[in-house]
Amino acid sequence: MNFTRWSARLPGTQRRAAARTDRGSVPAARGECGPGPGTWPDEDGADGPAAPALEELSVRQLLGQLPALAALVYGPEHRVAYVNDAYATAFGPRPVGAPAAKALPELDELGLLPLMDQVLRSGKPRTVKSRKAQGGGSYTVTCTPVELPARGEAGGGVLVFAADVTDHAEAAERLRASERRHRETAVTLQRSLLPQELEQPDDLRVAVTYQPGGTDAAVGGDWYDVITLGAGRTALVIGDVMGRGVRAAAVMGQLRTAVRAYARLDLPPHEVLQLLDGLAAEIDASQIATCVYAVHDPNEGLLVYASAGHLPLLVRHADGSVHRAADPTGPPLGTGGWLHTSGTIALPPGATAVLYTDGLVERRGEDIDEGVAALERALSGAAGTPQVVCDRLIRSLGVTAEHDDDVAVLVLQHPARTGPDAELFHNAALDLLGGVEAAPRARAFASGVLASWRFPVELRDLGVLAASELVANSLQHGTPPMRLRLRRTDRRLIIEVTDGDDHLPRRRRAEPGDESGRGISIVATIASSWGSRRTPGGGKAVWCEFALPG
Q1: Cα–Cα distance between 44 and 260 in angstroms, integer?
Q2: Is omega for the bond preceding 481 within 30 degrees of 0, making it cis?
């Protein structure tokens, strides 16, 4: 079989021949002296032995000396015409004339037989990269069509050229394994720093969904939290550290811990973000984060919130209408030099609020406002429990296991209670006008309300005592207007007194001869918890809670 005529069709042959022709013609074109006939210049410029013509070389010899694997097949059954020494060394000698399906099973293992059919039909070369054989080696294979005029139209052939890339494949696999370990470490760290179990407030139903990015995406710094503040109030936070991997997860953990600490101070949302802004710059000046911090007050039916460069929270009302929280929105945390402000949005009974990170709505090649609008449409039709709403939003926005970014969605509902369930939630309030009669009126009011709520006598007496001490403390140290508020949920009794003075009380040890200073200590002793905070319009609120039996 004559291989010489095929040499011109090997990859790169035409380019080498053209290059040789060009090199030989340049001196003549310039009028310079070139090498003499039958000679070729050495590196030092001296004439060397004559360069061999490509037509004088045997293709069989060339292919046989290649370190790469080469095989020639012909006909629709890809019968074996030739395999070189490297191929025989790798897979053993092959009988000439036998079909490739039987004689070359390794090509079937590499999935090349259909590709060879395609090459034979189309007349175009095809390449597959890093295919692994059962023997453990990996090969990059190029299948090139070869014309065999002597065998007729149906006698075309395919030259299979396989380069051993086992070392490269193993190195790539080691790199992928290292990346997987790094990602698993980041995911483990991320999940360990997020809440293992969400706090469930008395007046809200809360659910969250967190999904790390797909295997090709590094883990980000998304986080969320639900924090009960006392007196029935709840803080909700969601944020996103701009960055990837373990470093972003570590920064996220520090910010989440700081949020919980600042929340215990019961500060307004914008003051919490102001403290976080300074802390974020100290943790890592190169890392910035976005965040929304919101506080729900069941007595007001409002969400008071502040945003640091984060996407707007959404509220769906019972009629299906969706409202987007407007400004105020400040720059991300860590930028400094900005005074954050708080805003409010109504969360009446039957309403659902959604806080989320950008992974839910951001898509490449699409404006993020379009993603937020799509989320609004999806939320408008999403009803059910908070977890059901989470799942529906994830599906509606097309988030899959291979999503290219982390996604966190926090859904809270203010349920509209009716029937027996509504009987477990009550509010009662009394405005205190001051004077010596204020304390007796407060005790009488508290006694009557707690009796109507059918509390046990022991709990009723403790509640009246706590209300009396808080009112007395407000009358002595506070200023008008003053108000006593009683609230019961299915789990606790809450007693709160507000006044116009913004000096927060503190618990102190009273000396035996002191006639005052024991009120807060008494409340702290008999109640499950107590606390105080400044109110937005000026003044303060002091509260205590009693856990209900059973």
Answers
A1: 77
A2: yes
Q: Is the pLDDT of residue 11 over 80?
A: no
pTM of structure: 0.70
Residues 6+ apart with CB under 8 A from 457: none
Residue 10 is encoded by which pair of tokens? 């090997």
Query: Rounded to whole angstroms, what are the CA distances from 363 to 200, 290, 309?
Result: 32, 18, 18
Only one residue has tokens 């116009």, namely 500
Residue 319: strand, helix, or coil? coil
Which DSSP helix (H) or strand (E) runs through 159?
Answer: strand 157-164
Answer yes or no: is pLDDT of 372 > 50: yes
User: How many other C-beta atoms can be found within 10 angstroms of the C-beta atom of residue 548?
Assistant: 16
Average pLDDT rounded to a whole number, residues 363-379: 91
Average pLDDT over residues 17-25: 45
Q: Per-residue pLDDT for 305 more than 60?
A: yes
Task: Place 445 in a pLDDT band, splitting at 50, 70 and 90.
Answer: very high
pLDDT at residue 28, as a whole number? 40
Task: Produce one character per residue of 397-408: b if its CB has 16 or more CB atoms within 10 Å, e if not.
Answer: bebeeebebbbb
- Kindly state the average pLDDT of the residues 112-127: 91
d(CA 395, CA 211): 12
CA 410 and chain centroid, separation: 13
Which amino acid is present at 449?
V
Half-sphere exposure of 64 (CA within 13 A, CB side): 8
Looking at per-residue pLDDT, the higher value among 14 and 416 belongs to 416
The H or E element containing residue 228 is strand 221-230
338 near 284, Cβ under 8 Å? no
Give the C-alpha separation, 172 to 307, whole Å: 43
Residue among 254, 239, 276 nearest 359 (CA): 239
Give me the residue label for tokens 């969250």.
Answer: 208
Q: CB-based contacts of 96: which residues, under 8 Å, 6+ apart?
A: 80, 81, 82
